[in-house]
């Protein structure tokens, strides 16, 4: 059984929880056990507990984000010791890129990162696919000697020996509460990402097609427009606004000068018991079903609406 240690910033706790959910199959069959600092109980020495778990871990996951890189403890203590153990061959370190950041210039840049090509999890259209990619890479990296534990035959309660910790449930995950500040920040970040996504996509579209020109214009802090010209003629245009009509969200309107009281698409902010996401109603989704979209998934959804006239 391999022991997995999570090194992460508490600001990425929701993403860490999602990764742990995706690791459930490996945990259930006895291939791995996982540990992070939320397992420390009141009264335990904080630094000593982390050090002990880090020293005994077989696999150390660096959950990389801007906050991880900015954390002195993550960077100077956990990451440095993890890299020493990796160099010694006593543990394996896998960087897991959660959010876009300058990790390519970090001390672990020489290591192969997950997901594939080091693409940040939050930039995948479907984050479940990103987490699956990470889990598959973790499974492939586990030592061959750490096979699933053979489960013993059922025994009676009286035959189960008492342990120091005592029996407990594995169902310990609690519902997360998201503040108004959390929700506002998520939508703001999603909108800013979408603006960069459209600007870069317009430039790339023009670079690949001689007859195409793209025009991106930031109208104000809460709006931008995009126009695609073919042979000098307008073929597609839109305005994207921060702020929904029925709550927090981002709207899409046909036309570069669309009125503020109309829209052709709307992404609304939603959350489940663990994380925030953007959702498009069933009538607006090509697949005819609701989707939970991260930043890149939301941006690609609206980009697909813009380029659709040129793809018919």
Shape annotation: elongated
CATH architecture of the largest domain: 3-Layer(aba) Sandwich
The name of the CATH topology of the largest domain is Rossmann fold
Structural class, by secondary structure, is: alpha/beta
Q: State the CATH class of the largest domain.
A: Alpha Beta
Order of secondary-structure elements: EHHEHEHHEHHEEEEEEEH
Give the overall pLDDT as a whole number.
83
Give the CATH H-level superfamily of the largest domain: Toll/interleukin-1 receptor homology (TIR) domain
The number of helical runs is 8
Q: Distance between termini?
A: 53 Å
How many discrete structural domains?
Answer: 2
C-alpha-based Rg, rounded: 23 Å
What is the β-strand count?
11
Trace the largest sheet across and list its strands. 5-6-7-8-9-10-11
The largest β sheet comes out as: 7 strands, antiparallel
Relative helix content? 25-40%
For this entry, give a set of tags.
312 residues, alpha/beta, Rossmann fold, 2 domains, 7-stranded antiparallel sheet, 4-stranded parallel sheet
What does this structure look like?
This protein has 312 residues and is an alpha/beta fold. It has 2 domains: 2-148, Rossmann fold; 180-311. It has helices spanning 13-22, 24-28, 46-56, 66-70, 72-88, 127-141, 180-208, 295-311, and strands spanning 2-7, 32-35, 59-64, 92-97, 212-220, 223-230, 233-242, 249-254, 265-271, 276-280, 292-293. Helix 7 runs parallel beside helix 8. It starts with a strand and ends with a helix.
């Amino acid at each position: 059984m391999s022991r997995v240690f999570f090194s992460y910033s508490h600001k990425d706790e929701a993403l860490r929880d999602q990764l742990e959910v995706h690791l459930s199959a490996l945990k259930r069959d006895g291939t791995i056990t996982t540990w992070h600092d939320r397992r420390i109980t009141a009264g335990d020495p904080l630094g000593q507990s982390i050090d002990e778990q880090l020293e005994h871990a077989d696999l150390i996951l660096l959950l990389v984000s801007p906050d991880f890189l900015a954390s002195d403890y993550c960077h100077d203590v956990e990451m440095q010791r993890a890299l020493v153990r990796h160099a010694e061959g006593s543990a394996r370190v896998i960087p897991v890129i959660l959010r876009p950041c300058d990790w390519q210039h970090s001390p672990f840049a020489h290591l192969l990162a997950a997901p594939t090509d080091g693409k940040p999890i939050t930039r995948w259209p479907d984050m479940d696919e990103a987490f699956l990619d990470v889990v598959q890479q973790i499974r492939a990296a586990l030592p061959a000697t750490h096979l699933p534990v053979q489960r013993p035959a059922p025994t009676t309660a009286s035959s189960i020996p008492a342990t120091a910790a005592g029996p407990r449930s594995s169902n310990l995950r609690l519902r997360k509460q998201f503040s108004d500040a959390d929700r506002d920040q998520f939508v703001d970040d999603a909108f800013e990402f979408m603006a960069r996504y459209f600007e870069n996509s317009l430039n790339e579209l023009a670079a690949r097609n001689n007859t195409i020109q793209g025009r991106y214009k930031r109208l104000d802090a809460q709006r931008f427009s995009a126009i695609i010209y073919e042979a000098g003629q307008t073929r597609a245009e839109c305005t994207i606004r921060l702020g929904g009509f029925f709550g927090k969200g981002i709207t899409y309107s046909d036309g570069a000068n669309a009125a503020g009281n109309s829209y052709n698409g709307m992404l609304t902010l939603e959350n489940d018991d663990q994380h925030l996401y953007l959702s498009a109603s069933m009538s607006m989704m090509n697949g005819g079903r609701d989707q939970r979209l991260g930043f890149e998934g939301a941006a690609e959804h609206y980009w697909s609406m813009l380029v659709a006239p040129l793809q018919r």
